[in-house]
């Protein structure tokens, strides 16, 4: 899609009220005047920066002038718009059309992240269940001597787990050692 065609598509959006203010339009005109190759001559730049004319008229005339000059001039306008008003540049209707994918195209990214759609809570829940089962299996195994080791670890961990949880675990370990 040519830049002139895109500009024709974006004219109404750009000239609608409160999209571009005086300062941004002046910066764009100055950049088009000073860029290499020079897009606007000094006389044209003065005409489009004339404070006697309304902003809407000056902007409409500038856009029509650029469309008559050709694709390179329109491309430089888009570059100046991106530099001086990036948020507006990103909101242009022609940019949104360029960003939307072709409906006939196959999107492989959807299949790539299929396992990742459950979120962090699901991960934490699964991890907690797995850790709990591993701890239970390790503690219930009669061949290992867990009680002494676990008591030492839990005794030094008031920072990691709360005091109430630590006390409950200690009572549970003492109860297991009596049986």
Q: Can you characterise this structure?
A:
- The structure is a single chain.
- The protein has 179 residues and is mostly helical.
- The chain has a domain at 3-97: Death Domain, Fas (Orthogonal Bundle).
- 70% of the residues lie in helices and 0% in strands.
- It is built from eleven helices and no strands.
- The longest helix is centred in the C-terminal third of the chain and has 21 residues, at 120-140.
- The N and C termini lie far apart (81 Å).
Note the total helix count. 11
Helix content: 55-70%
The CATH top-level class label of the domain at 3-97: Mainly Alpha
**CATH topology heading of the domain at 3-97:** Death Domain, Fas
Shape: rod-shaped
Order of helices and strands: HHHHHHHHHHH
Share of β-strand residues: under 5%
CATH homologous superfamily assignment of the domain at 3-97? Death Domain, Fas
Which structural class is indicated by helix and strand composition?
Answer: mainly alpha
Low-confidence stretches: 106-115
Integer average pLDDT: 77
Q: What is the second-level CATH architecture of the domain at 3-97?
A: Orthogonal Bundle
GO cellular component, one term: endoplasmic reticulum membrane
Subcellular location: Endoplasmic reticulum membrane; Mitochondrion membrane
Protein name: Caspase recruitment domain-containing protein 19
Subunit structure: Associates with BCL10 by CARD-CARD interaction.
């Amino acid at each position: 899609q040519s830049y002139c065609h895109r500009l024709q598509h974006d004219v109404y959006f750009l000239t609608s009220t409160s999209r571009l203010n005086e300062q941004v339009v002046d910066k764009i005109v100055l950049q088009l005047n000073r860029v290499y190759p020079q897009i606007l001559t000094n006389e044209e730049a003065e005409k489009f920066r004339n404070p006697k004319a309304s902003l809407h008229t000056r902007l409409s005339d500038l856009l029509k002038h650029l469309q008559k000059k050709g694709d390179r001039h329109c491309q430089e306008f888009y570059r100046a718009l991106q530099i001086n008003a990036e948020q507006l540049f990103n909101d242009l209707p022609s940019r949104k059309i360029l960003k939307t994918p072709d409906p006939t195209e196959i999107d492989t990214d959807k299949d790539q992240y299929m396992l990742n759609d459950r979120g962090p809570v699901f991960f934490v829940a699964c991890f907690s269940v797995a850790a709990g089962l591993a701890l239970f299996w390790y503690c219930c195994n009669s061949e290992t001597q867990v009680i002494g080791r676990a008591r030492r670890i839990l005794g030094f961990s008031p920072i990691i787990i709360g005091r109430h949880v630590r006390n409950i675990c200690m009572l549970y370990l003492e109860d297991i050692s009596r049986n």
